[in-house]
Amino acid sequence: MQKKNNIITVQNIPITVTTDDANDYICITDIANAKNSNSRAADVVRNWLRNRATLEFLATWEEIYNPDFKVFESEHFKKQAGLLTFTPSVSEWIDQTNAIGLYVKKGRYGGTFAHKDIAFEFASAISPVFKLYLIKEFQRLKEQENDFQKIEWNAKRFLSKNNYLIQTDAVKNYLIPKQNYSENLEWLAYAKEADVLNVALFGFTAKAWREINPELAGNSNVRDYATINELTVLSNLETHNAQMIREGRDKKERFLILKEIADYQLKILNEAQSINNQIEEKQ
């Protein structure tokens, strides 16, 4: 899908945000302009990438979200961190490790773009105060987009005349695997982080879903059929999981905590939505 660009202004500095259906990437070259120095923005980014703490963060993020990340190659970067001769570029990091958290865009409106998680980390290195304002403006942008989506959704809802069909639990257009992954935890030993989240939220792995839904698995996955509430909880689970990985918690402990969080948050969101639906039906 074609990416959509937005501009947010943070302390009088324009920052480009590129958005598609799944992810938000923020131009850290623009963020680098907030640093009060004589260095070029590109040099600020390069110096940030030289830091071992930066490389540890980037590698951890990739291991969580990128199954094709080359961990061994990333260790080569870490070993050179701090050396005067070590001046890596973002393109080198991407090419050698197959990273997806950063990408470089050429041209007049180009620069280095980072997934929002990474962009916020970069902003911390520039200025903790600037990071706070960046998060605030980014959240404002997301709220505006959500407001527009609500308007669009309400219009479609009215035209379809299907108000009475909207319930808390969306109709599932797929078959649900019957294995109880929450009780039998043997799968955890070999599970990728994405499946730890899948089982915590949906109750089954991506592979199990594909096997029982082969017609749908060709061009989609279970997350494509998730409700808004489920996607909201999934986003929160990703944040919690990343933090627990940093804390060094093992996979079983993280799964049990994530499962508890998912059950609780989804229950709260569904109950709130059910109440809103009942109010709307009475109006």
Cross-sheet strand order for the largest sheet: 1-2-3-5-4
The helix content is 55-70%
Helix count from the secondary structure assignment: 12
Q: What is the 3D shape?
A: globular
- Structural class computed from helices and strand pairing: alpha+beta
The total tally of domains equals: 2
End-to-end separation in angstroms reads: 38 Å
Largest sheet: 5 strands, antiparallel
Global mean pLDDT: 82
Question: How much beta, percentage-wise?
Answer: 5-15%
The counted number of beta strands is 5
Q: Give the SSE string.
A: EEEHHHHHEEHHHHHHH
Uncertain residue segments? 155-171
Protein name: KilA-N domain-containing protein
InterPro entries: KilA/APSES_HTH (IPR018004), KilA_N (IPR017880)
Pfam families: KilA-N (PF04383)
What do you see in this structure?
InterPro entries: KilA/APSES_HTH, KilA_N. It holds the Pfam family KilA-N. Residues 4-141 form the KilA-N domain. This is KilA-N domain-containing protein. It comes from Eubacterium segne. The protein is built from 12 helices and 5 strands. The protein has 283 residues and is of the alpha+beta class. The chain folds into 2 domains: 4-137, no CATH class; 161-282, no CATH class. It has a 5-stranded antiparallel β-sheet. β4 and β5 form a beta hairpin. α6 (116-126) packs antiparallel against α7, α8 crosses α12 (251-282) and α11 packs antiparallel against α12. The radius of gyration is 21 Å and the shape is globular. The model is unreliable at 155-171 (pLDDT under 50).
